């Protein structure tokens, strides 16, 4: 039923709760899982990628790697296929594009990864994904 599960991660507790939930689904349905982290930084969105200082891009990449490694630890007991990937751009757009391009059957993501103030200013990523994803979206509430 859910052969390919996409799990976007931002390092929040809600995202880790979603990863745990995705693990239980993957075990039940024998699914492959892709863990992704989207780096959204204004400099990455500019046409001239050379304008981003190397130290900043390296720092963002290292933080993304740490987020993925932390989530990957949740999948330690999983015998199935798990991949990780860092992408750059607007999280909502990138998540829906990747889901469509790679024919994912389910997106599992956290309910809230940002503060309420930020959500009011830039909108909810989970809300965007709910409206534009090409497949079902499961929003997991942080149990904490």
Automatic annotation (TrEMBL):
Belongs to the universal stress protein A family. It comes from the Bacteria. CDD domains: USP-like. This is Nucleotide-binding universal stress protein, UspA family. Pfam families: Usp (PF00582). InterPro entries: Rossmann-like_a/b/a_fold, Universal_stress_UspA, UspA. It comes from Propionispora vibrioides. SUPFAM superfamilies: Adenine nucleotide alpha hydrolases-like (SSF52402).
